[in-house]
Amino acid sequence: MTDAPRTAKLTFDDKELELPMYSPTAGPDVIDITKLYAQGGVFTYDPGFTSTASCDSAITYIDGGKGELLYRGYSIDELAESSNYIEVCYILLFGELPTKAQLKKFSDRITKHTMVHDQMQQMFRGFRRDAHPMAIMCGVVGALSAFYHDSTDISDPEQREHASVRMIAKIPTIAAMAYKYSVGQPFVYPDNKLDYASNFLRMCFAVPAEEYVVDPILAKAMDRIFTLHADHEQNASTSTVRLAGSSGANPFACIAAGIACLWGPAHGGANQACLEMLREIGTVDRIPEFVARAKDKNDPFRLMGFGHRVYKNFDPRAKVMKESADEVLELMGIENNETLKVAKELEKIALEDPYFKEKKLYPNVDFYSGIILDAMGFPTSMFTPIFALSRTVGWITQWQEMLNDPSQKIGRPRQLYKGATQRPYVELDKR
Ligand code: SDX
């Protein structure tokens, strides 16, 4: 005797509907409302999607109450400690830990695609030197489909995989080129003898006039930052990639859409905004003034790097990032970093403040990352490009999963219409 399928009863007006319910492997159950409009003639209403599951997924799981983040079931703490970004890319894309041979084959494949078509250099030269690197990345990544036509047919699994490898391999090169262009230095080609993070650092900081040796401490910190940002369930930019992909847009256009969405200060742009806020606060004695502003309903100011739609406990990535910040600054001999002091004091004050406690506002991934990136020599304008670089594997994995979902269809939400009902047009001379 199989259990009768679980249903949710919904009664309104003269209607009584039974809607199917499904249980996940982890997290809240869901009520399937796909037939609600057909059967009940009503929509659900959930601006901001605070209570809406947009898809099935098996990639990343977040427990906001416990402050837990799993990539394919592996905890972010263990991956940050014991894995590396290329292995994390493999785990996200293929769902399992690779064998040594699988990892080497995958890593070699990524390495072989790190260069971009040389003519793309002309695209960079079309931007002003002071263009924000995110503006350049939106443009250049969107234009990849103009150079790599042979991996834009989304109905061909081989082309989808090829596009995924190309995106993961080329995004560090594009981000580094955007940085080099903004500082007026020549582009540095990838060096395929280096690992992924070391290659990125060298493409950013090497100059033709002298030998550049990658500092292993910085390479490890860079790799860990990539891992911590790799994927994060159905966040705004991932949902943007999925929605763009649901229309059949090519993978490069979808990733460009994700980059554009990530740029917002409420999302990936928060790491730049957070460091600029910490610098504006400047010293520990000015913290109360800013905490008061963050609590003032009439002041639009928010503590950047604080709060999260899902985490109502510590963001596990912020914890790892905070440990890394201490480690990197100490190893780099940057004692008494005033910004780090302000950050730690701000965190302490905020976490003891009833407003933040009541609203369950904790530091998120963007709170400490900027301090490390700043110490590594990156300008604040490169913080979000580095987030976008890291998240590309998450976006492309979610894009693949969406296309492989047999129930996949174009995403097309409805609305609660509050505009004018039909009314007659009045000729200009009669108004
Ligand atoms: C990322 O979704 C993801 O997974 C994103 C991300 C990923 O990896 O993809 O984790 C990356 O985007 C991290 C978040 C980075 N953004 C910031 O640090 C910007 C500052 N934080 C906020 O703007 C805000 O917390 C959000 C955008 C992150 C979350 O916003 P929500 O879930 O819509 O919450 P809300 O705006 O409804 O806030 C709830 C309450 C409000 O007060 P009330 O209206 O209930 O009185 O908390 C207050 C807010 O005013 N609040 C803050 C605050 N964040 C929320 N008050 C002061 N400072 C803050 N930072």
What would you note in describing this structure?
With 431 residues, the chain is mostly helical. Helix content is 49%, strand content 6%. The chain contains 18 helices and six strands. The chain has a three-stranded antiparallel β-sheet with strand order 1-2-3. It has a three-stranded antiparallel β-sheet with strand order 4-5-6. Strand 4 and strand 5 form a beta hairpin. The N and C termini lie far apart (71 Å). The structure holds s-citryldethia Coenzyme A. S-citryldethia Coenzyme A is lined by residues 48, 232, 235, 266-268, 270, 294, 302-310, 359, 361, 364-366. Residues 48, 232, 235, 266-268, 270, 294, 302-310, 359, 361, 364-366 line the site of s-citryldethia Coenzyme A (SDX).
Quick structural summary:
49% of the residues lie in helices and 6% in strands. It has 431 residues and is mainly α. S-citryldethia Coenzyme A binds next to helix 17.
